[in-house]
């Protein structure tokens, strides 16, 4: 088993990827007065916060609401909570945000939180899409699409959650 970490994104590259994703989100929703970014705790929520900051910089008039989703990612059933009522996303565009899309389970569970909420549309945004989907979930916006073998692992560190600099590693 490979134990060496290979840096695939450094902090400057992550910043550029977040900026590019924000522009893509804005282009996809240029007529919307408001967006909801729902970040999967913990790194997905940090990315959602950063996307919100970037969206405010590139479009001052866009109102962006954040929702933090807490999931039991190991459970075989949906066990989830949010920091604000999911009704805050009603009749709005929702962007579900996570750090890495691997099998799609986490995003599928995140989507499940909003199944009974009438939305204008729902999109997904991830920093890295590994293309090993077991669930019918795709990333609408991704910073990097990476083809890996199944025994390789992608890890993301984000300042604000870890004490390390922003980085993404393959190991």
TrEMBL record:
Keywords: Glycosyltransferase, Transferase. It comes from the Bacteria. Residues 8-142 form the Phosphoribosyltransferase domain. GO terms for molecular function: glycosyltransferase activity. Signal peptide: none annotated. Pfam families: Pribosyltran (PF00156). PANTHER family: BIFUNCTIONAL PROTEIN PYRR. This is Pyrimidine operon attenuation protein / uracil phosphoribosyltransferase. It comes from Olivibacter domesticus (Pseudosphingobacterium domesticum).
């Amino acid at each position: 088993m490979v134990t060496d970490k290979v840096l695939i994104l450094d902090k400057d590259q992550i910043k550029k990827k977040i900026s590019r994703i924000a522009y893509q989100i804005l282009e996809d929703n240029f007529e919307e007065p408001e967006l909801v970014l729902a970040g999967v705790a913990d790194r997905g929520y940090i990315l959602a916060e950063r996307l919100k900051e970037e969206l405010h910089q590139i479009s001052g008039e866009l109102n962006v609401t954040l929702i933090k989703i807490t999931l039991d990612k190991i459970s075989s059933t949906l066990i989830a909570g949010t920091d604000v009522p999911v009704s805050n996303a009603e009749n709005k565009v929702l962007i579900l945000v996570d750090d890495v899309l691997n099998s799609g389970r986490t995003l599928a569970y995140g989507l499940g939180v909003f199944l009974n909420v009438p939305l204008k549309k729902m999109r997904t945004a991830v920093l890295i899409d590994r293309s090993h989907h077991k669930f019918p979930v795709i990333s609408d916006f991704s910073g990097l699409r990476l083809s890996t073998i199944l025994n390789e692992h992608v890890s993301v560190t984000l300042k604000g959650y870890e004490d390390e600099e922003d980085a993404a590693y393959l190991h």
